[in-house]
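Notes to self after the Tuesday call (sharing in case useful).
The group wants a holo model before anyone commits to mutagenesis around the pocket. I volunteered. Ligand is thymidine-5'-diphosphate. Logging inputs and output together so the record is complete.
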Amino acid sequence: MKKILITGGAGFIGSHVVRLFVDKYPDYDIYNLDKLTYCGNLENLADIENKPNYHFIKGDIVDTEVVNMIFEKHQFDGVVHLAAESHVDRSILNPMEFINTNILGTVNLLAAARHCWQNSNQKHLFYHISTDEVYGSADNGSAFTEKTPYNPHSPYSASKACSDHFVRVYHDTYGLPTIITNCSNNYGPNQFPEKLIPLFIHNIKNKKPLPVYGKGINVRDWLYVEDHASAIDTVFHHGSIGETYNIGGNNEWKNIDLIHNLIKITDCLLSRPEGDSLSLITYVADRAGHDLRYAIDASKIRKELGWEPKIKFSEGFEKTVKWYLANEQWLNNVTTGIYQDYYKLNYENRDKTEQ
Ligand code: NAD
Ligand code: TYD
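Result:
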């Protein structure tokens, strides 16, 4: 029997990881610690919430007392740490929130794990989920390897870089058994519609402008979220302590090409004439510090752990669009209320640009 703490399990990637672990390992007890911020949504886990090996704890990783109390009470064998503030545009509007959750929250968890595990002979693992954005922009044509120096350009990526450093420090200084993975952009069901793909599907459906930052030439490497969850499962069970693994889809897209593809599929599924929504494309002022290109070299995880993405982009992309179109209520539930305030703040003051 294993007791695993998954933080941020009510969010986009976390909910897919929780589902995978709960279903695949009925002999594990899975504890999902989540504060339920604007993007944490228990609806994402409705299908597994009554399973006997699933437990939800509402709590804030920044709250030292709560974190210590939970570790003391449950004596976890392992931690998969996903809880974070995760959106670059929000980090530009409010960096402090990112420093609190992503840095202080991570250090709180590291300290609690160290305290709890220091006199134990059992095997433990603190597994930290991070992003390829810590490496900065891959402008020189090559892809990020695990040895690429950190060079973050947004408050989000700086806070994740700092949390990665602390994870390594806890390994090197205190001997905490840690692993880090740095993954490229995820897409799929249950992503909060502030990120490019769900936001644009939502706007196409509602015939609202599609705000393309800058010239739309930035490149991202897209991975289907269930492939990321399967990589996390692989690393959790077979990764080597103290190591870092990059995870990516080997699937680079220029934003504007991805958006054209998205319009084509969404228009088709909505039975609109081909190209109907192209007129919604609106070029707007660029994001500050906007990284031009992210590209992952995932050869280490492939060679050492045998992990590779399974879902072809064409398949995952269509599945994703269908999911958002079929789950209108989910989208409506998360885009009312305070989300509207963020939308106004981020988009209404952005000047339109001619291309
Ligand atoms: P998300 O924003 O959808 O979910 C984050 C979750 O963390 C939410 O459920 C939220 O309620 C919870 N949370 C936030 N602050 C908390 C706090 N103080 N205490 C407890 N819970 C808190 O994020 P996501 O896209 O699922 O990303 C999950 C992790 O994966 C993050 O660490 C992110 O940096 C990393 N990551 C994301 C991507 C991506 O493309 N989305 C790519 C690589 C890595
Ligand atoms: P996003 O989904 O926010 O992920 P990240 O910034 O972490 O890569 O954005 C993906 C790309 O899409 C990025 O280059 C910024 C761009 N983008 C837009 O052009 N318009 C938008 O409204 C958003 C949210 C993103």
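Two things stood out.
The domain at 2-188+223-247 is CATH 3.40.50.720 (Rossmann fold).
The CA atoms of residues 140 and 288 lie 20 Å apart.
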